[in-house]
Predict the structure.
Amino acid sequence: MPRFRIALPLFFALLLSGFAWIAGHTQTAGDGDKSSAPLGLPSEKHLRNVRQLTFGGTNAEAYFSGDDKYLIFMHQGEGVPCDQMYTMPVDTPDGKPAKPKLVSTGKGRTTCGYFFPAGDRILFSSTHQANPDCPPRPDYSHGYVWPIYNSYEIYTAKPDGSDLRPLTNSHSYNAESTMSRDGKKIVFTSTRNGDLDIYTMNADGSDVRQLTHELGYDGGAFFSYDGKKIVYRSEQPKTPEQIADYKDLLSRGMIRPGNLEIWVMDADGKNKHQVTHNGAANFAPYWLPDGKRIIFASNLENQKDPSGFDLYLINEDGTGLDRVTYHPDFDAFPMFSSDGKRLVWASNRNGKAPHETNIFIADWVE
């Protein structure tokens, strides 16, 4: 992804690796953490009983299983040179953080893990088939850019990583895949037609349909709980200079992150409308169970700091903006449990080393 994970899947990993760490704040870290640094802030009124689930390295894009008992997420750290997929139980009998389990091949780079709603399979993208080594970093002589690896294909496997099967074979960027809650449809981003657009396909990889056609990056899509709508992020170049720069970089397998806005469309691609209009970098949107509100990450109040992202709530019509996190460093990749009572997200809070990003969970307070 380009995920900067922002969501583009890969992007995020690279953006996260450039973030500085700052310790966090109210409730304390659980076992596995040596400090007594509080994890939540008094100003974070929507969050209660904040708990840290991972410790060390870069951990991001953690998403619940259909029964909310497990998380799938990507991890990079000591002995893991580029992102791999891991799973872990949310809760344990003794209350201590669980040990994550590797479920990808350990080769290449992976991104965008997700559970099938029935819990019988997982979904993720990987570059391992093209090359078992980590893919090269982008050419930063072009400035701050994200890589778009055409070696990303989407795979499905059993929850333990066995029975690996490819769902795409287009020799283009195929990533940022998530599923509808009925398990019938997958939504993903691909460059198969020459641009970064959103597609859907059946759970077995059949019936691929293109939903966006506008020039620019469209990605990070999630179905609403009832499966009728899709929320996503989009950056659409407008001026001749922006268009030329976008096309040139994309031809080189790169994209330059800038103004990403949150959009919503029907599940068939109709009735697209823009939700945010703030000119900031907005990404990682996810629906609340009520189907009327969206939680997302944005640097709209701290655009000069590359790690200055916080979580916000907004109504689908763009009204009712409500800030959720106030930590001075990175907070992103939110997802609600099925009943809306818990929120999981990635944060730099309570880091013990530079660039450390961990997974946190909290009870949600309306």
